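chain below, 115 aa
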Amino acid sequence: QEQFVESGGGLVQPGGSLRLACVASGISFSWYVARWYRQAPEKQLEMVAQITTLYVTTYYVDSVRGRFTISRDNANSTMYLQMDNLQTEDTAVYFCAAYLYTTYWGQGIQVTVSS
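prediction:
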Protein backbone atom coordinates (compact mmCIF):
# COMPACT_ATOMS: atom_id res chain seq x y z
CA GLN A 1 0.00 0.00 0.00
CA GLU A 2 1.45 3.31 -1.09
CA GLN A 3 1.74 5.91 1.61
CA PHE A 4 3.21 9.38 1.82
CA VAL A 5 3.66 11.15 5.14
CA GLU A 6 4.38 14.85 5.14
CA SER A 7 5.85 16.94 7.94
CA GLY A 8 7.35 20.35 8.58
CA GLY A 9 4.50 22.72 7.88
CA GLY A 10 3.20 25.40 10.19
CA LEU A 11 3.03 29.13 10.80
CA VAL A 12 5.97 31.38 9.97
CA GLN A 13 6.49 35.11 9.63
CA PRO A 14 7.30 36.70 6.27
CA GLY A 15 10.97 36.23 5.48
CA GLY A 16 11.15 33.06 7.51
CA SER A 17 11.95 29.50 6.49
CA LEU A 18 10.37 26.07 6.66
CA ARG A 19 11.50 22.66 5.48
CA LEU A 20 8.89 20.20 4.33
CA ALA A 21 9.62 16.48 4.26
CA CYS A 22 7.68 13.63 2.68
CA VAL A 23 8.48 10.01 3.44
CA ALA A 24 7.23 7.51 0.87
CA SER A 25 6.51 3.84 1.41
CA GLY A 26 5.06 1.10 -0.75
CA ILE A 27 6.84 2.23 -3.93
CA SER A 28 10.35 2.04 -5.38
CA PHE A 29 10.89 5.71 -4.65
CA SER A 30 14.11 6.09 -6.61
CA TRP A 31 12.27 5.31 -9.85
CA TYR A 32 9.78 8.15 -9.40
CA VAL A 33 9.86 11.82 -10.29
CA ALA A 34 9.27 13.72 -7.03
CA ARG A 35 7.08 16.81 -7.01
CA TRP A 36 5.67 19.37 -4.63
CA TYR A 37 2.35 21.05 -5.37
CA ARG A 38 0.41 23.68 -3.49
CA GLN A 39 -3.14 24.96 -3.42
CA ALA A 40 -3.87 28.37 -1.99
CA PRO A 41 -7.40 29.36 -0.92
CA GLU A 42 -9.67 29.85 -3.93
CA LYS A 43 -6.80 29.11 -6.33
CA GLN A 44 -5.96 26.18 -8.55
CA LEU A 45 -3.48 23.50 -7.68
CA GLU A 46 -0.03 24.36 -9.02
CA MET A 47 3.20 22.42 -9.25
CA VAL A 48 5.85 24.26 -7.27
CA ALA A 49 8.94 22.12 -7.83
CA GLN A 50 10.07 18.86 -9.37
CA ILE A 51 13.19 16.71 -9.16
CA THR A 52 13.82 13.87 -11.55
CA THR A 53 15.48 10.54 -10.99
CA LEU A 54 18.48 9.63 -13.09
CA TYR A 55 20.06 13.03 -13.72
CA VAL A 56 18.43 14.71 -10.73
CA THR A 57 17.37 17.75 -12.68
CA THR A 58 15.11 20.28 -11.01
CA TYR A 59 12.28 22.56 -12.05
CA TYR A 60 10.69 25.47 -10.18
CA VAL A 61 7.70 27.65 -10.89
CA ASP A 62 8.83 31.23 -11.43
CA SER A 63 7.28 32.53 -8.22
CA VAL A 64 9.52 30.36 -6.00
CA ARG A 65 12.70 30.05 -8.05
CA GLY A 66 15.67 31.24 -5.99
CA ARG A 67 13.76 30.85 -2.70
CA PHE A 68 12.74 27.17 -2.65
CA THR A 69 14.97 24.12 -3.06
CA ILE A 70 13.73 20.62 -3.78
CA SER A 71 15.88 17.61 -2.94
CA ARG A 72 15.58 13.87 -2.45
CA ASP A 73 17.16 11.10 -0.42
CA ASN A 74 16.49 7.88 -2.27
CA ALA A 75 18.08 5.72 0.41
CA ASN A 76 15.42 6.92 2.85
CA SER A 77 12.59 7.33 0.31
CA THR A 78 12.22 10.98 1.27
CA MET A 79 11.74 14.20 -0.64
CA TYR A 80 12.26 17.68 0.81
CA LEU A 81 11.25 21.22 0.06
CA GLN A 82 13.39 23.89 1.68
CA MET A 83 11.46 27.15 1.64
CA ASP A 84 13.34 30.36 2.40
CA ASN A 85 12.27 34.01 2.41
CA LEU A 86 8.65 32.94 2.63
CA GLN A 87 6.03 35.47 1.64
CA THR A 88 2.33 35.75 2.46
CA GLU A 89 1.48 34.56 -1.05
CA ASP A 90 3.18 31.25 -0.26
CA THR A 91 0.37 30.43 2.16
CA ALA A 92 -1.23 27.21 0.92
CA VAL A 93 -1.70 23.53 1.51
CA TYR A 94 1.39 21.79 0.16
CA PHE A 95 1.23 18.27 -1.29
CA CYS A 96 4.06 15.92 -2.12
CA ALA A 97 3.61 13.65 -5.12
CA ALA A 98 5.52 10.90 -6.88
CA TYR A 99 5.06 10.28 -10.60
CA LEU A 100 6.04 7.38 -12.81
CA TYR A 101 3.11 6.13 -14.89
CA THR A 102 0.66 7.33 -12.29
CA THR A 103 0.81 9.92 -9.54
CA TYR A 104 0.70 9.14 -5.85
CA TRP A 105 -0.17 11.96 -3.45
CA GLY A 106 0.52 12.92 0.11
CA GLN A 107 -2.30 14.06 2.36
CA GLY A 108 -1.29 17.71 2.30
CA ILE A 109 0.19 19.98 4.94
CA GLN A 110 -0.66 23.57 5.79
CA VAL A 111 1.90 26.34 5.42
CA THR A 112 0.81 29.75 6.68
CA VAL A 113 2.95 32.84 6.24
CA SER A 114 1.67 35.70 8.36
CA SER A 115 2.89 38.41 10.66
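Residues 10 and 111 are 5 Å apart (CA to CA). The chain has a mean pLDDT of 96.
thats it, cya
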